[in-house]
Specification:
The chain is an alpha+beta fold. The chain contains four helices and 23 strands. It binds zinc ion (ZN).
Length: 294
C-alpha cells in the first residue's frame, strides 16, 4: 500500500530537482523609488542570471536602453511615469543579448503605480492679455514656437550623457511644485509641469547634470529658453532667463552656469521654471533630484 506513495514522493522530488537549476538562475529587478507614482521618475536596476552584452526594455510604451554598472554588476535605466498614467500594475519587459551565442533571454516584472498627492491649490494669476488673447502676429510666433518644440524636444540622442545625481539648478527656495494646477485669468490651465525656484533676476542658473545644449533661444511663452539633452530622451528645460551663457551644441557639465534667471516670456515676475522631460513626458524635477543615481 505504501509503495505507490513512495514512488509519487520520489517522482515529485525528481521533478523539483530538474526544475531547480532554472529557478536558481533568476533575474533581480528593482526600482528606485520602491513606490512608483504618476509624474515620477524611476531608476530600474536589473541583475540578470548570466552575463549579457546588452539589455533593452519596454515600459509604458517607451523603449529603454540599459547601461552596465561594473561596480554593482547591475544594469540600469532611468525612466518615468506620466502624470496621466492611471494607478495600476504595469509590466517592465526585458530582453538581453548573451555574448557570442546570440541567445536573447527575456524576463518581465510588474510594478504597481500609485497616485501621487499633488497640491490641489488653485492660483489666480494675472497675466498680460497678449498671453491669453494673442494678436494674429503673436499667434504666428506661438505657432513657430510650437513647431520648434515639436521638432527639437522629440529628438532622442542614443547615448546616455548624464551620470550621478541631478542637482538643483539654483540655490533658492521652491515657489511652486510640480503637478499643482494654475488658473490664468480665470481659465484653468494644465497642471504645472515643472518646478519653480524663487530667484531674483540675474541669479546664475546651473546645469542639473552633464549634457549637450539642444536649444538656447528666445521663445514666446518660455522666454529665453535653454534645453539640455542628457541622452536617451531625457531633457532638462530652463525658462524665463534674462541671459544666455551657452549656445546650441555646447557640451556642459553638472553645475556649469548656463544662463541668468529672469522673467522673460509668460512669467508674472522673475523666477526660474525648470522642467524634466523624458521621451515626451514631463516628470517631477524634485523627485528626480531625490534619486541616488549611478
Ligand atoms: Zn513654473
Amino acid at each position: 500500500m505504501g509503495l505507490p506513495n513512495l514512488r509519487n514522493a520520489a517522482g515529485a522530488l525528481v521533478l523539483s530537482c530538474t526544475l531547480l537549476p532554472a529557478y536558481a538562475a533568476t533575474w533581480t529587478v528593482r526600482s528606485q523609488p520602491a513606490r512608483l507614482v504618476n509624474g515620477g521618475p524611476v531608476l530600474f536596476q536589473v541583475r540578470p542570471p548570466a552575463k549579457l552584452e546588452s539589455l533593452t526594455g519596454t515600459w509604458l510604451g517607451h523603449q529603454l536602453t540599459f547601461s552596465y554598472n561594473a561596480a554593482t554588476k547591475t544594469w540600469f535605466a532611468l525612466a518615468g511615469v506620466s502624470l496621466e498614467t492611471t494607478p495600476a500594475k504595469y509590466t517592465l519587459e526585458l530582453t538581453g543579448a548573451r555574448p557570442g551565442n546570440g541567445a536573447r533571454p527575456n524576463f518581465s516584472r510588474q510594478f504597481a503605480v500609485a497616485r501621487a498627492k499633488y497640491p490641489k491649490i488653485k492660483v489666480e494669476l494675472t497675466v498680460e492679455k497678449k498671453f491669453t488673447e494673442p494678436t494674429p502676429e503673436q499667434l504666428q510666433q506661438i505657432e513657430e514656437g510650437k513647431k520648434i518644440k515639436q521638432d527639437y524636444l522629440s529628438r532622442v540622442s542614443a547615448d546616455r550623457q548624464w551620470s550621478g545625481a541631478f542637482t538643483a539648478p539654483a540655490d533658492a527656495p521652491i515657489s511652486d511644485v510640480f503637478g499643482s494646477q494654475r488658473i490664468f485669468n480665470g481659465v484653468a490651465s494644465r497642471p504645472h509641469e515643472g518646478l519653480d525656484f524663487r530667484v531674483p533676476a540675474g541669479t546664475p542658473v546651473t546645469a542639473m547634470n552633464d549634457g549637450t545644449v539642444l536649444l538656447a533661444r528666445p521663445m514666446y511663452f518660455e522666454g529665453n529658453f535653454v534645453v539640455l539633452d542628457h541622452g536617451q530622451g531625457l531633457l532638462t528645460l530652463y525658462l524665463h532667463l534674462s541671459e544666455f551663457k551657452v549656445k546650441e551644441g555646447d557640451m556642459v557639465r553638472r553645475g556649469d552656469v548656463i544662463g541668468m534667471s529672469g522673467g522673460t516670456g509668460r512669467a508674472t515676475g522673475p523666477h526660474l521654471h525648470v522642467a524634466v522631460r523624458w521621451q515626451g513626458t514631463y516628470l517631477d524635477p524634485a523627485r528626480l533630484m531625490q534619486l541616488s543615481l549611478p
